[in-house]
Amino acid sequence: NAGVTQTPKFQVLKTGQSMTLQCAQDMNHNSMYWYRQDPGMGLRLIYYSASEGTTDKGEVPNGYNVSRLNKREFSLRLESAAPSQTSVYFCASSDAGQGSDTQYFGPGTRLTVL
Amino acid sequence: GNSVTQMEGPVTLSEEAFLTINCTYTATGYPSLFWYVQYPGEGLQLLLKATKADDKGSNKGFEATYRKETTSFHLEKGSVQVSDSAVYFCALSDSGGYQKVTFGTGTKLQVIP
């Protein structure tokens, strides 16, 4: 099992460019999440998907969109990148709703917006 | 809303020293409590958890006890190793439908030989 995988690992964008961060999990989990991690602020939830076919906003959704492509995949899109979106992005999954509240994280994508 | 407060770091200890990282929380209902660890360049991984009051979570020599009366979940280890150097996050999961997790800001631990 690969667990949770994310691509790319690193990315540099110019202000205004767009990109999509990919995430996939092979644990058959229902719920998936996107977080950003910034120094001194811990992890903040951007969007989540409680189950295939549903997505909802988290704490900091502005400037982002998501797609739950199928049960395995959950992508995060930046339509017009801004320097404030420079961060490390983590995807996670869990079997929430099936009695397990542990989240499993991917290795992260380090994004720099110039 | 829910919140988690943990001691600020960085914490620097000598190998074999005793570790305590304090964590307190605010939540409605009966949350589950977690400690996650993040090693350099990696994602977070679960270290231990406790799901109800007075439960003790333990793993790899680390322990934490769910104290409802003091709303705390302090992380302890009797003898740290250099390999324990990492960032530690306290977190809680409420009992809502998709189990939203609230994370603390993280405490960086550096263990020196």
Can you give a write-up of this model?
The complex is a heterodimer of chains A (114) and B (113). Chain A has 114 residues and is an all-beta fold. Chain A has no helices and eleven strands. In chain A, strands 2, 4, 5, 6, 9, 10 and 11 form a seven-stranded mixed beta sheet that branches. Chain A has a four-stranded antiparallel beta sheet with strand order 1-3-8-7, with no helix packed on it. In chain A, β5 (42-49) and β6 form a beta hairpin. By secondary structure, chain B is an all-beta fold. Helices cover 0% and strands 50% of the residues of chain B. Chain B has no helices and twelve strands. Chain B is globular and about 45 Å long. The model of chain B has no long low-confidence stretch (mean pLDDT 92). The chains are: A mainly beta (114), B mainly beta (113). The interface between A and B is medium-sized, with 22 and 20 residues.
Structure in a nutshell:
Chain A has 114 residues and is mostly beta strands. Chain A is 0% helix and 51% strand. In chain A, a hairpin with a 3-residue loop joins strand 4 and strand 5.
So what's the overall shape of chain A?
globular
Total number of helical segments of chain A? 0
Report the structural category of chain A. mainly beta
Number of strands of chain B: 12
**Main sheet record of chain B:** 6 strands, mixed
Note the run of SSEs of chain B as H and E: EEEEEEEEEEEE
Globally, the shape of chain B reads globular
The first-to-last residue Cα distance of chain B is: 41 Å
Estimate the helix proportion of chain B, in percent. Answer: under 10%
Features:
heterodimer; A: 114 residues; mainly beta; 7-stranded mixed sheet; 4-stranded antiparallel sheet; 0% helix; globular; B: 113 residues; 6-stranded mixed sheet; 12 strands
